[in-house]
Amino acid sequence: MIVEYLRYEIDAARQETFIADYQAASKPLLASPYALSFDMSQCVEDPSQFIIRITWTSAEDHLQRFRGSADFRTFFAKVRAYVGDILEMRHYIPLST
Fold it and tell me: Cβ contacts of residue 60 below 8 Å, gap of 6+?
């Protein structure tokens, strides 16, 4: 299992649409056998900051199998507009259960 964290900076005018688009994108994402969980958080102190956390079966499953799938194409069509807003996108190994 691997955890992907994406950190976004989204201006106030686009936040409502960003949230709605990611909620819609979570459906094809979670339809994938490689995505185990998804959640999205917005910073209280700075509402322009968002964290997306996706738990994957493995980094290889995410980067190779999911990204080559129809589920990815459907997912990415919903979030493509925000790629330029990504501040960080990394995979982490959980150290606690």
Answer: none
